[in-house]
Amino acid sequence: MGKKIAVIVRDRKEEALRMAVGLTLADDEVSVFVMDAVLGQSESMVLNIETLKDLGGHMLTNNPSNPFELMNNGQIASALTGFDVVVAY
Predict the structure, then answer these.
(1) Is the separation of the CB atoms in 85 and 6 below 8 Å?
(2) Which end of the chain is more exposed for a tag (fewer CB within 10 A), N or C?
(3) How many CB atoms lie within 10 A of CB 36?
(4) How far apart are CA 58 and CA 69, in angstroms?
(5) Three-class DSSP category at 87
(6) Are 83 and 2 in contact (CB under 8 A)?
(7) Residues with Cβ within 8 Å of residue 60, at least 6 apart in sequence
(8) What is the DSSP letter of 25?
(9) How confident is the model at residue 27 (pLDDT cuts 50, 70, 90)?
């Protein structure tokens, strides 16, 4: 297995998801943490979310308006310590 990579999504949502999908190609474990914001429903956003899930990526959020696994900020902070690489977008 490759590295454990966390992608933190804040401002550049579509770019962050596109990049997260690309990171799965190296057989790395990718988890996406959507912080505060609600992800839109554009065609490219939906496609990237579905592709990421199909490739084994995990989607997590601190915002209950998103349809992903819900974690509070403390849980997210604790979870991030277990990753080899953390990328913020």
Answers:
(1) yes
(2) N
(3) 11
(4) 8
(5) strand
(6) no
(7) 31, 32, 33, 34, 68, 69, 70, 71, 76, 79
(8) G
(9) confident
Structural domains in the chain, sorted by start: 4-88 (3.40.1260.10)
Query: What confidence category does residue 2 fall into, taking pLDDT thresholds of 50, 70 and 90?
Result: confident
Q: For residues 5 and 23, is the Cβ–Cβ distance under 8 A?
A: yes
- DSSP category for residue 18: H
**Taking the complete model, does pTM exceed 0.85, yes or no?**
yes
Give the pLDDT confidence of 34-80 residue by residue, as tens digits: 999 999 889 999 999 999 999 999 999 999 999 999 999 999 999 99
For helices 13-23 and 43-54, the axis angle rounded to 10 degrees is: 30
